[in-house]
Amino acid sequence: MGFCPGNSSLVPIWINHGLSRCFMETLISSVMFFIVVVLGGIQVLVFWKRALRRTQRFRTNPFWFRLQIFLSVAMITQYILRIVMYAVFFEPLSGDIELATCFYIASYIVSFFVIAIERTKFLGNQVHGHGFILLLFWSLAFLSENLAFVSWGSPHYWWKLDTQFHQAMFGLWVVRYVITFCLFVLGLRAPGLPQKSYMLIINEDAEDPIEKTPPTIAENRSTWANIVTKLRILWPYIYPKGSFLPQLYLLICILMIITGRVITVYIPVLSKNIVEALSRDPPLFPVRYIMYYLGCRVLQGNGGQYSMFANVHFLLWVRVRQYTMKGLKARLLDHLHNLSYRWHQNRNTGEVLRMMDRGTLSTNQVFGYILFDILPTLADLFIAVVYFYSALSALFGLIMFLALTLFIIGTVAVTEWRTKFRRRMNIKDNIVLHRATDSLLNFETVKHYNNQSFEVGRYRESITDFQLSEWHFTVVGGVLGFFHNFVVSGCLLICSMLCAHYICEGTLKVGDYVLLATYFTQLYNPLSNLSLFYVKIQDILIDIENMIDLFEEKQEIKDEPDACDLIINNKKMEFDNVSFYYNKEKPILHNVSFTVEPGQTLAIVGPSGSGKSTIIRLMMRFYEPTDGHIRLDGQDISKVTQSSLRCAIGVVPQDTILFNDNIRHNIRYGNMHCALEEMEEAAKSADIHVKIKSFPEGYDTIVGERAIKLSGGEKQRVAIARTILKDPDFMILDEATSALDHETEENVQRSLSNVCEGRTTIVVAHRLSTVVNADKIIVLKDGIIVQQGRHEELVEMDGTYADMWKHELRET
Predict the structure, then answer these.
(1) Percent of the chain surpassing pLDDT 70
(2) Distance (Å, rounded) from C-alpha 145 to C-alpha 143?
């Protein structure tokens, strides 16, 4: 028994206008066997030793997964049937068919084990989606069946259907083609695996705890998922609607791209014409072709990098990009300001700013890459296939088409695999920025506890984690580059050898080889860069995902469609059975009711955690009451606009927050349109004017990050001046003098008394001595009003207020 049928040889590869069947059966089956048996076996071994087991009730068994398994079994059955048919028509069997059949069957059997281990176990942050080994195996299986098209004219293949054997082999090839295509598509979808992070599933179902691993995003989720939603959100900022000049610039850029594609076609044709003219006997001087060629080169440049078109559209695109950047950043900041108080409490500012920067920058880049790189390159490739088909022969077009198909499929598969490493990089990058920001903002605490080395160590640790993810990301990129070089170089080799063969036979001319070489030279860089552009778009889409997540955050507190502005007449305030809670098991406020008559002062006292600050946040509509109503002058605040509500209320908080700007800006923030005299008068009322004048730069003094250059009392008085300048109808003082010394407190209390005169005021107090003159005092405990009345009345009662008063007197 010979290894190859009919006493033929394993080489040459190309015989009788087609690929050698013996060589192809041996090579393809060996490669597939190595990929899934050797590499897949390593994957199974690693999973078996290090992976965690998925809980049985979280495993899915949908129809598409069952189909995936059925098709794999059908492939094994088909190979068994094929060797039986070979045994019927050929006696004895050739060694290549026996070897290939054994390799194919063994490969699909091992693929069952790989599928099973991926379904039952997960490694680290692995989520939905098959591993690279299986995806490469199914891709190569589908590609190998497409190679039959290259040998369309070979008598060793079944295309003529002239014998019963060829008819049977053609039928089996059709079956294999359909099955491998379906397996390739199903492999990309991975129907039997979770469609999001398994750790997210675990965290969503607390009844089945597993290792305390932090939740992760769906790392293997395709970046093209929800692309319609992403475009819907970003399109108003990508296309400069409503601005004539950016629209004109964009149109000019598109026209230059189309013109550039036409020039790309003509340059190889002109090269061919020049060579053929010079090759004649006698040679002709092709001055016209040379001038045309030079003109096209000036417009096109060196691969489009230094062309006139590239320089012009780059300059025009800058203006379009700036328009997009400005609109997107402004809209995102406005959206973030409209999000709820609850959302801002749970977010890290450093991470949010990182998401904004990456997202807004990436939005411009993705449109630029698609418009100026991806679409022109795809157009060049399509033109190349058509032109090779028409100018040379159908075989050249088919080879180019198969090479491009392999190139694109491989690029997409490897890049999708690479996506999870990019997402990990972003997460680690956010952690690095978060730790640095948190450490610097709290540097006083760090120094108080002498923990500089601890903070630097944590920061260094986070950088190490980021660099490890970056290294994995880079390694996968190297694998992708090797694959691209292999495909492009292989295609060029096959086409060059074939073209030289046809020239030797007299079918083609030397000018056709120049045409082929010139066209490939033009396509080589764009084709190599196509993967780079696709990878960059993938990276950019990942960066955009975080920004899209910000845009998709729902605004918790919204004005009703028919909301009107708040109208202030009598300045009366009412709480009517107001309840509020995050969790029903632990209410924060329960049926709180009180009324503050116009011009009166209501004091709210009680132990920490009793709900005092929550009342203020409900007043400002940072939260909505779970039950009940809050009314100002008889108007339910949920029915009026938030802007008019917050204009009518002034708040002096306990924890003063100032902008890292000068004192003038921080005081004028209460009324940005006030005159200088009004601002200084407000500062005098807050007993801070003289102090400010004593500073070397006066009102131009920069307060620093978190107002670190001012003392606690100075910060508080600046906040009081800011609220005085706002001149609100309702005043809320949240322990407004808690950070002041006794003498300054007395001065500010007198100022606040004057400011609050004629205004309805709520005072939240810890020190009862500051509210003894209030018109009414309510005592909160565990979210319930336990007492209310004037100071004298409450002291006479035997209750919570009297105990608090006695305790304060003892401390005094």
Answers:
(1) 79
(2) 5
